C-alpha cells in the first residue's frame, strides 16, 4: 500500500499539491517523476527486490500520485484506479453478499447503475435515501448495514449532506462512511477531517482537470482498512496506467490555483444568472438562496464552478444547450474548459424515469461546469444563448 511520506504532511495545500509524494529521480536528479513504463522489476536475487515485483501491485509513477492526493485529502494511504467507477467497484469489494448499504438518492448516475444493475445481483442490498436529513439516514440503517455512501454536493441538483452528522450515524451503526468528493475536491472540502472512512474521486474531473485521461483514487486514514484496499487493488487489478497517473500528477500541481478560479468564475456566473433568470432557477451552493447555504459555508471553503439551471422545459433547455459557443455540449466536468450538459438525457440517462421524477431531476435541468476562461466571455456566451 502507498503510505504517504511523513515529511509530506507539512505546508499549505498549494505547496503540498506541487511537492507531496515526489522526490528527484535517483539516477539523474530529474525533478519530475518519470513515467515508469514497465510491467516488471528485475530482482537482485531470490526474495531480494527493491520493494517492486510486478506493476499491477506497484508502480513508482502511480505511487507518487497516490501520495500526493492522500496528503491533499489529509489521509495516510492512497489507491489509484483506472476510472472513478473502477475505484468504487473495488471499494465495494470490501463487502459481501447479505451486506446492506445506505446510499444517497441523488448520487452520480453511474454509481446508481453499478449498484442497481451489477452489485445488487451479487447479493448486496441498497437503500436510497435523501441524505440531506440525518434522521432519514438513521431510519434506513439496519443491523446488516455496513456502509453509508454519500456525495456532496450532488450531481446535478447540488444538494448538500452534512458529513459530520453522517459520521455520527455511521459510527453508531459501525458502518463505513464513504464519500465521493469529486465535485468539491480536497481544496474546498476534506471529508476525512469530518469523520469519513474512505474518500474517493473520479480523477477524470477536477483532480486531473485537463479532460485528457480517465481515473479514480481512494484515500483512507486507517492502516487496517488500507491493507484491505491494497489487497483488492492488486487482486482485482483495476489499476491505472503510468502515463495517466503522470497526467493526473501534473494536474494536481495546479489544483488549488484552478479551484480558486473555478470558484471565482462560478460565483460571478451564478450572480449573473440570478439577475437574468431569478434565483428560483439557479442552483449553486454559494447563493444565499440555496436552502443549505449555511451548511455550505460551514462544510466547504469554496463553492466551485458547478451551477445548475432549471429552465422549466426540455425545449428551453435545448435552446441554451444549442446556442452556446464558448461552453461545449459534452458529458464530464471539472476541466479548464467550460462544459454544458443535459443530465436527464446524458449523465443520468441510466436512472429510471420514476426515480428521476422523485428526485426532481427534470428535463428542464441544464448543468454548467464553469471553466477558467475569462469570466466576461463565459457570461456573454450564456447571455446570448439564454432564451429571451
Ligand atoms: C464522473 C464521476 C464519477 C465516475 O468517474 P469515472 O472516472 O467517469 O469512472 C463518479 N462520481 C462523480 C461525482 C463523477 O462526476
List keywords for this structure.
eight-stranded mixed β-sheet, five-stranded mixed β-sheet, 13 strands, alpha/beta, 388 residues, binds pyridoxal-5'-phosphate, Aspartate Aminotransferase, domain 2, 2 domains, 14% strand, Aspartate Aminotransferase, domain 1, 14 helices, single chain
Can you walk through the features of this model?
By secondary structure, the chain is an alpha/beta fold. The protein has two domains: 240 residues, Aspartate Aminotransferase, domain 2 (3-Layer(aba) Sandwich); 130 residues, Aspartate Aminotransferase, domain 1 (Alpha-Beta Complex), CATH 3.90.1150. 37% of the residues lie in helices and 14% in strands. α1 packs antiparallel against α2, α2 runs parallel beside α9 and α10 runs parallel beside α14. The site of pyridoxal-5'-phosphate has 16 residues, from α3 and α4.
Task: Annotate the secondary structure layout.
Elements (H helix, E strand, L loop, with lengths): L1 E2 L9 H7 L40 H13 L4 E5 L2 H9 L7 E5 L4 H10 L6 E5 L4 H7 L4 E7 L11 H10 L3 E5 L4 H4 L9 E5 L13 E5 L2 H14 L5 H12 L1 H23 L4 E2 L9 H7 L6 E5 L3 H10 L4 E2 L9 E3 L11 H7 L5 E5 L5 H11 L3
Rg, nearest Å = 21 Å
Q: From the helix content, strand content and strand pairing, which structural class follows? A: alpha/beta
Number of helices: 14
Q: Note the overall shape.
A: globular
Q: What is the typical, i.e. mean, pLDDT?
A: 96
Low-confidence stretches: none
Instruction: Give a count of the beta strands, DSSP E runs of length 2 or more.
Output: 13
Strand order of the largest sheet: 1-2-8-7-6-5-3-4
Q: Please identify, by name, the CATH architecture of the largest domain.
A: 3-Layer(aba) Sandwich
The helix-strand sequence is EHHEHEHEHEHEHEEHHHEHEHEEHEH
Share of residues in strands: 5-15%
How would a crystallographer describe the biggest sheet? 8 strands, mixed
Amino acid at each position: 500500500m502507498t503510505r504517504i511520506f511523513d515529511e509530506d504532511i507539512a505546508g499549505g495545500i498549494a505547496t503540498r499539491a506541487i511537492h507531496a509524494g515526489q522526490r528527484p529521480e535517483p539516477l539523474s536528479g530529474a525533478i519530475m517523476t518519470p513515467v515508469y513504463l514497465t510491467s516488471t522489476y528485475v530482482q537482485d536475487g531470490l526474495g531480494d527486490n527493491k520493494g517492486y515485483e510486478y506493476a499491477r501491485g506497484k508502480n513508482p509513477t502511480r505511487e507518487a500520485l497516490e501520495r500526493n492526493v492522500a496528503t491533499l485529502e489529509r489521509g495516510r494511504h492512497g489507491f489509484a484506479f483506472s476510472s472513478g467507477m473502477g475505484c468504487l467497484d473495488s471499494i465495494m469489494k470490501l463487502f459481501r453478499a447479505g451486506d446492506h448499504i445506505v446510499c444517497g438518492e441523488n448520487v452520480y448516475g453511474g454509481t446508481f447503475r453499478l449498484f442497481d444493475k451489477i452489485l445488487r445481483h451479487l447479493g448486496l442490498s441498497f437503500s436510497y435515501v435523501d441524505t440531506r436529513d440525518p434522521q432519514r439516514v438513521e431510519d434506513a440503517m439496519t443491523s446488516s448495514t455496513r456502509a453509508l455512501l454519500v456525495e456532496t454536493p450532488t450531481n446535478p441538483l447540488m444538494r448538500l449532506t452534512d458529513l459530520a452528522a453522517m459520521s455520527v450515524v455511521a459510527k453508531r451503526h459501525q458502518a463505513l462512511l464513504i464519500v465521493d468528493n469529486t465535485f468539491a475536491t480536497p481544496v474546498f472540502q476534506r471529508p476525512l477531517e469530518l469523520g469519513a472512512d474512505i474518500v474517493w474521486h473520479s480523477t477524470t474531473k477536477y483532480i486531473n482537470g485537463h479532460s485528457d485521461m480517465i481515473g479514480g483514487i481512494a484515500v483512507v486514514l486507517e492502516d487496517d482498512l488500507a491493507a484491505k484496499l491494497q489487497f483488492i487493488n492488486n487482486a482485482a487489478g483495476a489499476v491505472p496506467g503510468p502515463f495517466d497517473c503522470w497526467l493526473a500528477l501534473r494536474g494536481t500541481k495546479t489544483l488549488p490555483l484552478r479551484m480558486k478560479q473555478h470558484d471565482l468564475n462560478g460565483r460571478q456566473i451564478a450572480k449573473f444568472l440570478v439577475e437574468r433568470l431569478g434565483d428560483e432557477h439557479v442552483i449553486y451552493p454559494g447563493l444565499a438562496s440555496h436552502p443549505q447555504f449555511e451548511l455550505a459555508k460551514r462544510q466547504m471553503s469554496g463553492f466551485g464552478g458547478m451551477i445548475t439551471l432549471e429552465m422549466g422545459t426540455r425545449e428551453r433547455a435545448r435552446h441554451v444547450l444549442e446556442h452556446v459557443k464558448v461552453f461545449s455540449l459534452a458529458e464530464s466536468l471539472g476541466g479548464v474548459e467550460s462544459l454544458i450538459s443535459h443530465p436527464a438525457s446524458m449523465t443520468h440517462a441510466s436512472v429510471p424515469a420514476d426515480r428521476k421524477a422523485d428526485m426532481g431531476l427534470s428535463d428542464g435541468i441544464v448543468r454548467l461546469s464553469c471553466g477558467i476562461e475569462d469570466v466576461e466571455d463565459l457570461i456573454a456566451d450564456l447571455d446570448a444563448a439564454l432564451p429571451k
